Amino acid sequence: MQIAFIGLGHMGGPMAINLHKAGHKVQAFDLATAACEHVKAAGVQIAASGEAAVKGAEVVISMLPASQHVEGLYLGRDGSGGLLAHIAKGTLVIDSSTIAAATSQKVAKAAQAAGLAFIDAPVSGGVGGAVAGTLTFMVGGSDADLERARPVLEKMGANIFHAGAIGAGQTAKICNNMLLAVLMIGTSEAMSLGVANGLDPKVLAEIMRRSSGGNWALEKYNPYPGVHENAPASKGYAGGFGTDLMLKDLGLSQENATAMRASTPLGGLARALYAAHSLAGHGAEDFSSIIKMVQKKG
Amino acid sequence: MQIAFIGLGHMGGPMAINLHKAGHKVQAFDLATAACEHVKAAGVQIAASGEAAVKGAEVVISMLPASQHVEGLYLGRDGSGGLLAHIAKGTLVIDSSTIAAATSQKVAKAAQAAGLAFIDAPVSGGVGGAVAGTLTFMVGGSDADLERARPVLEKMGANIFHAGAIGAGQTAKICNNMLLAVLMIGTSEAMSLGVANGLDPKVLAEIMRRSSGGNWALEKYNPYPGVHENAPASKGYAGGFGTDLMLKDLGLSQENATAMRASTPLGGLARALYAAHSLAGHGAEDFSSIIKMVQKKG
Amino acid sequence: MQIAFIGLGHMGGPMAINLHKAGHKVQAFDLATAACEHVKAAGVQIAASGEAAVKGAEVVISMLPASQHVEGLYLGRDGSGGLLAHIAKGTLVIDSSTIAAATSQKVAKAAQAAGLAFIDAPVSGGVGGAVAGTLTFMVGGSDADLERARPVLEKMGANIFHAGAIGAGQTAKICNNMLLAVLMIGTSEAMSLGVANGLDPKVLAEIMRRSSGGNWALEKYNPYPGVHENAPASKGYAGGFGTDLMLKDLGLSQENATAMRASTPLGGLARALYAAHSLAGHGAEDFSSIIKMVQKKG
Amino acid sequence: MQIAFIGLGHMGGPMAINLHKAGHKVQAFDLATAACEHVKAAGVQIAASGEAAVKGAEVVISMLPASQHVEGLYLGRDGSGGLLAHIAKGTLVIDSSTIAAATSQKVAKAAQAAGLAFIDAPVSGGVGGAVAGTLTFMVGGSDADLERARPVLEKMGANIFHAGAIGAGQTAKICNNMLLAVLMIGTSEAMSLGVANGLDPKVLAEIMRRSSGGNWALEKYNPYPGVHENAPASKGYAGGFGTDLMLKDLGLSQENATAMRASTPLGGLARALYAAHSLAGHGAEDFSSIIKMVQKKG
């Protein structure tokens, strides 16, 4: 199958490479030359432009940083036309960027008007999952479009969830990541309080993991150094899912909550704490480094 | 084995009955006659007083509402002597009340001075676990004392964790329950936000359960009605673990955090939200009813 | 002076009337006929359309509910042209709506391109201030444009602050109102905690007012019933500044904080608490009714 | 009048000196020799012990760090007798320490049983106010006892508030200081958000001071450097009221709120943020340095 892949960053790069390895004919493009070089070195063909990449493609995949980039790419910006006009009728467009659900819906509407199929399919699993091809996709769109996308998604991910209609993939992701931030901070507080009282961090972690406090962070991503040997906390908070990326996702969840007039006291506080953590200089560290905020410096 | 059991409330009553059923000679006591009657009906022998209950006992177990009751029972109050003076040297005292770790340590010190062994062994698992004999015990004390207690605890519970030295059982419990409150509120926010955006609650719950937002509430105790058939949320928030009991445990965690000068932003906010929920009249409902605070009033 | 006034709601209506009373020739317009009738009864001339209202006007004033209305009015929506094209070059446009600073800047840019002067001039002071002509204006724009607007603004308000360049009026207002929400909730908590401990509300309010807890709410708008005879709290929380209006302003502040990656832990929590208060059915009550959230339900 | 003064720290020292300067015969005592030396140098007579200090005193004043010190002083500790037994019947005891209201009530009860009069009279105003004799006293106790204390208090302070019965002075103080912490953080957030949007800090501060966001911090203690020339913010956050002292007072307010099952969402969050600020190494800086948490690290 011929696939156009737009956006070759830390996530998009390895995703495109996995599609190439699986035997698909991938035409990739990114405005940043350095990103293209990295992917080219893995044997993927680099197109000269977005328009060139989508020529002849049966499926178009995009993986971009934020709402304005996706809207700019497909619908155009400042008077310049968007990519949608260059994609052949009937093509399936898969946007895997994490962006506002409202933007997904806006782009989908324009895509459908142009005779294209569209699904939003943001991912979780981080760079590690992108490289290993074990990402989780949260998909918004019709059953038929998802089934059409499935063989392609399966080359990049291990779990594919159908969240609902267009935009639902984005909503599921921001709900999940808001909850993830809350349980990471909550776990950090509980671990720190227990240790301050003299408990052994491994013992406390194991008790809570097997009790009603059990959650994903206690299972495999404990923020306390030394509890999980392979977690970022045990490697100086390097790698993993960065504080600034979590802050971006929390921003999307709060934009949505604000627009919906929804009440998210812990989710909103989590955003403010991650913003403070980033302001204090920890933006590039793994998001589990938030535990530093509730521990004695030193 | 002869066992004295003091405190026959919703938790203590079924615990004493399980020990009796297991063949132990139980001498039970509670200041409330009604509580005694219930246990007596199950065949347990009722003592005339605490002093009478502990006479000849090899193990003394207490299950009382709060710190001041445990301190009053063992050390005495307002000039009246405490029960410790009436317990034979060498006896093992197991306090299963959920109280301040500092109080456990104070009572333990006095018990040891009187030649007694002492462990703190608060439980989780609720009334259901107490009746079924499947409680989780979080134990603070020496290895030797825990091993001595184990055969007795195993008649009442399914999991026994050794948290550390005396008081560590209490600390582990308040850390766990603080984290539980945080993830219950966080899950409530995420579910409500997703549903406000049009997602199906069961679909969203399943996606997050299998993703990085996964936690105990999503596993078996979803606060959204209808997701888990047997959860309190699907039964009008009846049964389960009451809002006011959660508020009590959050109070203990905040007392401890305050004394330790620890920072628990989400844990402290969880306490304030449960306090507001109780003030609004939901104190007797299951603690998962906190989701009502972030949903449109029906 | 001939003035066009667009938007005749609870705020805009009395503002237009005050300009009329001051001797200006006002041409007013609102899409809602009822709003027009009310203003017409006071002697103000009603125009048949926005275009008709601005014909011959030296100053155009708008007072609309939200960003999308202001953008729609001046720039047009869904292909229909905006009002800017109908306003004579050199005219001064004053937008007194409370909207996103980014929208003010966008409209200002288009206005300037069309040869018009523009300032953002959101107000505080509520309906009472609009009727009495004692509003506070927070103005963004050039010194020259503000001086040109001053004689008109003085007919509607008692205080005119120059906050900075275009958009700065909006920013000053959301900063102020975020702080107002925080101090109203904080005052509610302090009053409730003191009264729960047996203190007399008037005595406590007076002590804090004259101490370092002193703030605007303690000065004239105490949320505890009976402390200030004329405050909404003493009148069943009727009148004043509604919970849903405060929620809107807090939404604007959080949109801005999210876009800026700013950390506003108390401001964000205030938004979540006002959202919960609105969900619980208190949206139409004065915003000081938030004290109900931290008090035992009557 | 002969006055015993116990506790000669940063606050107690200058208070004792002011009483001496006013012509009273002061017998002062502190366990720390250094504190005594400082006061002795100002001409105050130093007693050899607490018992010696109260001998012949008509009024006894204490100014100690925390609840346990006050209880230990007057009621004794670990079996040793307390100072109450050494004070002549009829003497007035004034405790100006900031401690738990419950401790004030406990000591007052014992004092009354010993034939003494007692009032709690915690202060605000900081070291500057103590030196200048311009402290604010918040008094709990009877009218008669307050009138008896007034001439003495007036030598040390400028404002004397009668908050209510015994313990009410303490309650008023923790309510006030909880509110102060909330408005200081809220003001920090509003100032930082405005400046991030390009506003001039002095202009924004002045607009909010004169609007509904007005509060004590905007009046004279702005946390943004350079707005108030004499505020700690303009002097590297030196002097003033330290972060760790604010954290202590917030701890007292949260102990009380927890015991009362009161809901204080902003007050509780303020405590957690100050605890994090102290953990990050800012404990000795003025409490307005909390603004650093919501600003980009320099």
TrEMBL record, chains A, B, C, D:
What GO MF terms are annotated?
A: 3-hydroxyisobutyrate dehydrogenase activity; NAD binding; NADP binding
Kindly indicate whether the keyword Mitochondrion belongs to this entry: no
**Active site residues of this protein:** K173
Q: What is its EC number?
A: 1.1.1.31
- Give every 6-phosphogluconate dehydrogenase NADP-binding domain span: 2-164
Note the InterPro entries from the entry.
3-OH-isobutyrate_DH-rel_CS, 6-PGluconate_DH-like_C_sf, 6PGD_dom2, 6PGDH_NADP-bd, HIBADH, HIBADH-like_NADP-bd, HIBADH-related, NAD(P)-bd_dom_sf
Domain of life per record: Bacteria
Q: Which GO terms describe its biological process?
A: L-valine catabolic process
Please tell me whether the keyword Oxidoreductase is annotated for this protein. Answer: yes
Q: Which Pfam families match?
A: NAD_binding_11 (PF14833), NAD_binding_2 (PF03446)
Q: Pathway it acts in? A: Amino-acid degradation; L-valine degradation
Q: What class of enzyme is it?
A: oxidoreductase
Q: Which residues form the 3-hydroxyisobutyrate dehydrogenase-like NAD-binding domain?
A: 167-293
Q: Which reaction does it catalyse?
A: 3-hydroxy-2-methylpropanoate + NAD(+) = 2-methyl-3-oxopropanoate + NADH + H(+)
Keyword set, alphabetical order: Branched-chain amino acid catabolism, NAD, Oxidoreductase
UniProt lists the family membership as follows: Belongs to the HIBADH-related family.
Q: Which NCBIfam families match?
A: HIBADH (TIGR01692)
This protein's name: 3-hydroxyisobutyrate dehydrogenase
Q: What is the species listed in this Swiss-Prot or TrEMBL entry?
A: Comamonas flocculans
Lineage summary: Bacteria, Pseudomonadati, Pseudomonadota, Betaproteobacteria, Burkholderiales
| Gene responsible for this protein | mmsB
